[in-house]
Amino acid sequence: MITVVGTGTGAPLPADVLAGAALVVGGRRHLDAAGLPADAERVVLGPLAPALDVVERHLEKAGRVVVLASGDPGFFGIVRVLAERFGPELLDVRPGVSSVAAAFARIGLPWDDAVVVSAHGRELRTAVNVCRARPKVAVLTGPGAGPAELGAALLPGPCPPGTSPADAPGGRVLVVARALGSGQERVERVTPAEAAARDWGPDVSVVLCLDETRALGGVRTVAGPPAGPAGWALDEGRFAHRDSMITKFEVRALALARLGPRLGDLVWDVGAGSGSVAVECARLGAAAVAVEKSPDGVARIRANAGAHGMDVRVVQGSAPSALAGLDDPDAVFVGGGGRELPAVVGACARRARRTVVVAMAALDRVPAARAALTGAGFTCDGVLLQSSRLAPLPGDVTRLAATNPVFLLWGERTPASSEGVAQ
Using alpha carbons only, how large is the chain's radius of gyration in Å? Predict the structure, then answer.
């Protein structure tokens, strides 16, 4: 058997767990604190493959193996790797308190509604986008993805013309928990700017990113992030808009299907108008940025986002210049259709990691928009959407009322064209 023991967040190591161990594997600080049997082989965890090879050799000789891990080793921990290599039937897992549970306990908050995301050995941008989109997030950190890097990424960055840091989504505080369960334990609340300005050292256990106005939440039935919306492609009446200048729900439904917004994504809504697409992407879990040039449009977008309880960053300015200070998106929706459309579509296509969707009312704009997508290395497809809605007539009868036709193009990045996109 392989005994996997979680330690390091308050619970002492059971006295008998190391008795008779032929091999003890763990981080250096766990091994130094454990008091190993004199005849036990010791392997400091670094690269996993060599350590797993040593474990396999001891199992072949029926030697008892103990693996020391932090907190709950079945929660973003080594249990997954061991089970994949040796089978779960060989594991005797004795979990401790996870760093996430300990950190929330230290600040007196429940965490059944928290989103937990790992940045350890993974892209930091996913954690950043989750923090932008959700009010209660725990980030498991790693080298190059600690509190300083997370704080810097959560700053608005260079503000496009007409915007300020206040245009970023609702204010977040970072709770940095270090050396949990040890005599050097420290838990600090800082702003993203304060986190970015400090050297936090190697003993960070976890970082919580909180919108403290929504940190308590309501009564929970299912743990984890809130369930997805009951519906999407909401009726236009659910949004404030000017003179029907809004992406109609039939068009929005297909646009959302092609954008594929999800938790961890960043989506731009360029020429946002009412912001209906940005708000719907945020409802589906993505971090959303709405770019709109008119001041009254900016006000409407903020009102619509607030009415739906969503964080949407609003950038006032004209694309493509207003896009310069924004992080690269996973997907982009482009509305409108002025003379600058090809330049806007091209600028978005050069930055998008996955998809660009373009909605146009004018047939004349379609060839140039399509050329901008294919010229950036996207495969391109599209449809003309024409719909007729049921409308009442006098005498308790119904007619079909046609909506204006809209061209919808979408481009998807091919693997070869992704080489120039920041990863």
Answer: 26
CB-based burial of residue 203 (10 Å sphere; 0-12 exposed, 13-18 middle, 19+ buried)? middle
Q: Tell me which residue has tokens 């719907």.
A: 280
Nearest CA to 138 among 117, 157, 119? Answer: 117
Kind of pairing between the strands at 406-413 and 173-178: unpaired
- Asked whether the CA dihedral 212, 213, 216, 219 is positive or negative, the reply is negative
Residue 268: other Cβ atoms inside 10 A: 30
pTM of the shown model: 0.86
Residue 131 buriedness (CB in 10 A; 0-12 / 13-18 / 19+): buried
Q: Do 202 and 182 contact (CB within 8 A), yes or no?
A: no
CB 69 within 8 A of CB 99: no
Encoding tokens for residue 357? 């969707």
The residues pairing with 223 across neighbouring beta strands, listed in sequence order, are: none
pLDDT tens-place values along the chain, 423 residues long: 899 999 877 667 777 888 889 999 998 888 888 888 888 899 998 889 999 999 999 999 888 999 999 889 999 999 999 999 999 999 999 999 999 999 999 999 999 999 999 998 889 999 999 999 999 999 999 899 999 999 999 987 544 444 444 444 458 999 999 988 888 899 999 999 999 999 999 889 899 999 998 888 778 888 887 778 888 999 989 999 987 788 899 999 999 999 999 999 999 999 999 999 999 999 999 999 999 999 999 999 999 999 999 999 999 999 999 999 899 999 999 997 788 999 999 999 999 999 999 999 999 999 999 999 999 999 999 999 999 999 999 999 999 999 899 999 999 997 665 555 644
